[in-house]
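call fold(seq) -> tokens
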Amino acid sequence: MNIKKTITKILHHLVLILLLVMVLIPFYILIINSLKLDKHINQNPLSFPGSMEAPLYFGSYEYAWDYVQGYIFNTVAIAVLEIFGVLLFASLAAYGFTRFHFKGKEALFTVFLAFMMIPSILTLAPQYALVYRTLNLKQSYAGIVLPAIAGGMPVNIFLIKTFFSGVPDSLFEAAELDGASHIRRYTTLALPLCMPILFTIGLSTLLGAWNDVIWARLILYGNEELYTISVGVFVVFNDATNKIPDNVVYAGYCIASLPLIIAFAFTSKQFIKGLTNGAIKM
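ret:
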């Protein structure tokens, strides 16, 4: 049995190492080529820079920053608006489903759950027609932020409601006896208790805003000044007329990836804690 457990453990570690290598190889290629001159990339894209033949070159990051800095600021602004809207409206709706009693509440919540089952790609065409043509929100932040907030409601309401449902009724009843209004109970009691899941939802919303290409490209098409980072690097760096050197393109991709890597590196424990607590409460 000990031999079998040892072999199984070794196989598990080998699989994990293999998966880690598969994940790191693209980053390796991205980083080393961002530190080379363009001619050295064409000679050997897998060679490590730093030799006499291929010295380290950091100038590509300076040029890349000139291209992407505006896109990063646009993305940060959109992400902040989306996070604020998602957390505010989802938490208010979840509190209402948990603490208020009204006719049809369960049926309405079931409808929200049903929307979770619909793949987002199926709603892309009607959503585009509504936002772009009916509401005329093309080439604007509102055209990106409002659909993102609305689209994230079902699953986020479900997650936050699960947390609220785990709070003992006695706490809310005690606050009510002390004369606390629903607003006060929501802000001083419910929200602090569900901070882990709010943090997780906020980080997930940030990831979605940062990586959104399809929807942002559709809405912002024609106004490069409003491009998000994902749309900007995709459109500008792949436009043959710009003739951007390959090392600058690699550096731009590195800069675009860095904020998310840093954010997740410092918040991964809180992110996992929120997911774990949510799973336990379910």
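Residues 172 and 243 are 62 Å apart (CA to CA).
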